[in-house]
Amino acid sequence: MKEDRFWMALALCEARRSLMEGEVPVGAVLVKDGELLAKSHNTTGVHPLNHAEILAMLSVSPARLRGAVLYVTMEPCVMCSGAIVLARIDEVVFALENPRFGGSYSLYQIPLDNRLVHRVKVRKGPFGDEVKGMLEEYFSKRRGDEDRLAW
Questions:
Q1: How far apart are the first and last CA of the chain?
Q2: Buried b / exposed e along 10-46 (16+ C-beta atoms within 10 A)
Q3: d(CA 107, CA 20)
Q4: Between the CA atoms of 18, 19, 24 and 28, what dihedral angle is there, to the nearest 10 degrees?
């Protein structure tokens, strides 16, 4: 979808900001009715809870979160997935699976759990290869091992 590419490209720009700041490159964009509500990127070096998704949701009033779509470059972790459900976000679109910590699709499917009061649509969006490239760049610099792919 053209709309997915537009919003995910903005999330990708946020992920690049994380990468430039020495953070795990994850970016998030929160959208409702075609309007940008918030954008953010990881700042976990400041505080371990400062994931892009959490920061984006915190910058918007709770009433505006209901029915919003969250575009995020990497599948949300368990913490973020729980917060997404509690915020009653309508849909999550992610670019790359997170096989180590994924809480929305690959490892756990918290937003889809029928035992919870609210369920969130989850789907894969564009730019997975670009996100994977940024993660490989980040982890190769961090570990100092150009030949070893961390992702």
A1: 26
A2: bbbebbbbbbeeebbbbbbbbbbeeeebbbbbbbeee
A3: 28
A4: 40
pLDDT tens string for the chain (151 positions)?
899 999 999 999 999 999 999 999 999 999 999 999 999 999 999 999 999 999 999 999 999 999 999 999 999 999 999 999 999 999 999 999 999 999 999 999 999 999 999 999 999 999 999 999 999 999 988 876 554 444 4
**Residue in the block written with tokens 């670009």:** 130
Question: Contact at 8 Å (CB) between 117 and 87?
Answer: no
How far is Cα 123 from Cα 104, in angstroms, rounded to an integer?
9
**Angle 57-62-67 (CA atoms, 0-180°, nearest 5)?**
80
> Which residue from 123, 68, 69, 121 is spatially nearest to 95, judged by alpha carbons?
123
User: What residues act catalytically?
Assistant: 53
Select from 40, 75, 45, 44 the least CA-distant residue to 57: 40
